[in-house]
């Protein structure tokens, strides 16, 4: 059973560019959350999608946006990249049947130069 | 607002020794509490969770944690450390199942032979 799949695994972008990260949730999961983990820090919540709508949002600027598709997969978009956006971006999916325990993907390592 | 404090950014133990990783939380409502482990270049794996049932929670790989409301603590323990336990450990809290997880800054566990 495939877990949460994220792509790409690594990415290098230039300051000011835009980036799109992708996430396929675990089979049977309908909710996707995105987290940013800076080096040496704990993950920080960006936003959560359910039924193709943003249900909850963390303290991140509007440069961070997302989308959820009918098949429950999700994208995270970041515009006007800053050096400080360099981090590991984690996707987590969940389903009501599991009491909302999140399954995390391995992440996308974004480096902004 | 919820918050998590992990006491000790680094913990070093010998193989076979007791592992104790400390977590204190702040929550205005009865919380859901989690411990996750992260190995290098990987995502987060759930060790155990507290959801207001038994206060002593048993997880995977021999780990357990005890919820102590009076101390607002949820410390993680393992009776005997293995080399394979060396990793980063994160405590997380959420006020409601399915909402954003708030993570601590993490504790790096080193195990020496």
Assembly classification = heterodimer
Distinct helical segment count of chain A: 0
Please estimate the helix content of chain A: under 10%
Choose one word for the global shape of chain B: globular
Q: In whole angstroms, how far apart are the ends of chain B?
A: 41 Å
The helix fraction of chain B, in percent, is under 10%
Sheet with most strands of chain B: 6 strands, mixed
Structural class of chain A: mainly beta
Strands of chain B, count? 11
Rg of chain B over CA atoms, rounded to whole Å, is 13 Å
Overall geometry of chain A comes to globular
Number of helices of chain B: 0
How would you spell out the order of helices and strands of chain B?
EEEEEEEEEEE
Major sheet characteristics of chain A: 7 strands, mixed
Q: Which residue ranges of chain A are poorly predicted, with pLDDT under 50 across at least 5 consecutive positions?
A: none
> Which pair has the most extensive contact?
A-B, 26 and 23 residues
Strand content of chain A: over 45%
Mean pLDDT of chain A: 93
The helix/strand order of chain A is EEEEEEEEEEE
Mean of all residue-level pLDDT scores of chain B: 92
Structural class of chain B: mainly beta
Helix and strand topology:
The complex is a heterodimer of chains A (113) and B (113).
Chain A: E1 5-7, E2 10-13, E3 19-24, E4 31-37, E5 44-50, E6 53-57, E7 64-68, E8 74-78, E9 87-94, E10 103-104, E11 108-112
Parallel strand pairs in A: 2-11
Antiparallel strand pairs in A: 1-3, 3-8, 4-5, 4-9, 5-6, 7-8, 9-10, 9-11
Chain B: E1 3-7, E2 10-14, E3 19-26, E4 32-38, E5 44-50, E6 56-58, E7 64-68, E8 73-78, E9 87-94, E10 102-103, E11 107-112
Parallel strand pairs in B: 2-11
Antiparallel strand pairs in B: 1-3, 3-8, 4-5, 4-9, 6-7, 7-8, 9-10, 9-11
């Amino acid at each position: 059973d495939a877990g949460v799949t994220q792509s790409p695994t690594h990415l290098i972008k230039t300051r000011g560019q835009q980036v799109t990260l992708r996430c396929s949730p675990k089979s049977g999961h309908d909710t996707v959350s995105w987290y940013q983990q800076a080096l040496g820090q704990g993950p920080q919540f960006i936003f959560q999608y359910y039924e193709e709508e943003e249900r909850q949002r963390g303290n991140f600027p509007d440069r961070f946006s997302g989308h959820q598709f009918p098949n429950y997969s999700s994208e995270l978009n970041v515009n006007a990249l800053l050096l400080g956006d360099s981090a590991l971006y984690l996707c987590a999916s969940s389903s009501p049947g599991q009491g909302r325990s999140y399954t995390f993907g391995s992440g996308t390592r974004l480096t902004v130069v | 607002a919820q918050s998590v404090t992990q006491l000790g950014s680094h913990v070093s133990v010998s193989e076979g020794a007791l592992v104790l990783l400390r977590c204190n939380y702040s929550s205005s409502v009865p919380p859901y509490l989690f411990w996750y482990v992260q190995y290098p270049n990987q995502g987060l794996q759930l060790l155990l969770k507290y959801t207001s049932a038994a206060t002593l929670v048993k997880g995977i790989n021999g780990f357990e944690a005890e919820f102590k409301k009076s101390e607002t603590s949820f410390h993680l323990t393992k009776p005997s450390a293995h080399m394979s336990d060396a990793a980063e450990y994160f405590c997380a809290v959420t006020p409601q199942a399915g909402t954003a997880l708030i993570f601590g800054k993490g504790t790096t566990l080193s195990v020496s032979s």
